[in-house]
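Hey, resending since the last one bounced:
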Amino acid sequence: MATSDTSSQHEEEGVGGLRLLMSNAPFRALFTARTVSYTGEAISLVALMLFVADSTGQAIAVSVLPLVGDFIPALLGPVTGAISDRFDLKRVMIVCELVQGAMLALIALSMPPLPLLLLLVAARAAAGQVFMPASRAAVPGLVRGRDLEPANASIGFGTNGAEAAGPLLAAVLFPFLGIQGVLFGAAAAYVFSALILLGLRPLPPVREEHESTSLLADAREGLGYIWSVSAVRVIALGFCVVVAFNGIDDVALVLLAKDTFGAGDSAVSLLLGAVGIGLVVGYALLARYGMRGSMVVLLLLGFGVSSLGNLLTGLAWAVAAAFALQAVRGIGIAAMDVATNTLLQRMVPARMLGRVFGNLYGAVGVAAGLSYVGGGLLLDATSAPVTLVIAGVGGLVATVAVALTLPRALRRAGVSSRGEEKGSGGGEDRDATPAVPEPHPRESRED
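The structure tokens again:
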């Protein structure tokens, strides 16, 4: 922790995202590495989809790529999170980036048939699934507690900006490098990210002498922790239910533009890009002003706005109205992401943080997959407007449920609405499994 009066004042007041990036070199390295990594992922996804489409000519083969790259690795969430809690986070992230780069390089070298390609894509995605909770768990060890909100918002801004810019960058590179060259470029991005991460200080694991050395036992403990600590359980369930209802929006927006509004492909692209614009704006605003408010209020606003955005989009009368609503919805998604990460980073003990993030975002991935299946059936049975309204209503019901249960769970754990430990408090959850960490043992913060 900082010891000077000036640093203590910064600890109390917090700083904005830009100032944090300028003044904190380790955090800047993590931000840059994640941004480069997700740029490589976005570029590689476009290249892989084009390669599969050209080599097989089958739409079903293209649709399998997201399944192998997103849904199946999400099922490994309990194990991937446990890996983060067992080893030095810096080493975990570097190894993950090198593995992802190696898998893409193998694909680029061999341009393999579909079965082998899917295996390599699955291996790359599994490494990415380990990288995600490790990089989130590393943030509290790099910034002061008061700076977690702008830190998480800055990382979200970089990540989503990279995902938006990746396809555009790929479009620029394809005429010069071709699919194979673009894949090599994406592999190089992962290697570059690993080199950037070398600038981090060690972030060793926090383990107790009596803890089991079994990875599966650690994974089971992580699942048990989420279920036994009511505040964490409410946040996780609320997030997953909101995603389960609203995850179908991408598909529904395509049908809304074409079937309901009778618009063309440009309108579809416009609608699909609206959320991305809102996300970037939301993260930018939160990076600048996010440290000033309650994280519980921000979480509820995020859940509510992201759900209400879909409900009102289902009632929209034109593409322009739907675009505006989806852009506002993107701001809500940014809010729920920043609030969730910040609350968990403050509440969860350091030795459990990787497992909590691994389980949460693994479950979110599963919820998104279920949303595509259930939402697809609902779209076939009804229409895009009806599906969006039902999705929004379901998300709002989940928001109300979280609003009714989370404040009480936090009070029982002796935690404030910002996720910070109060001067007094406790409760059943903390007696069994601490819901609020002692000063973060992984900390390597800037003075």
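The two ends are 7 Å apart (CA to CA).

Sorry for the duplicate.
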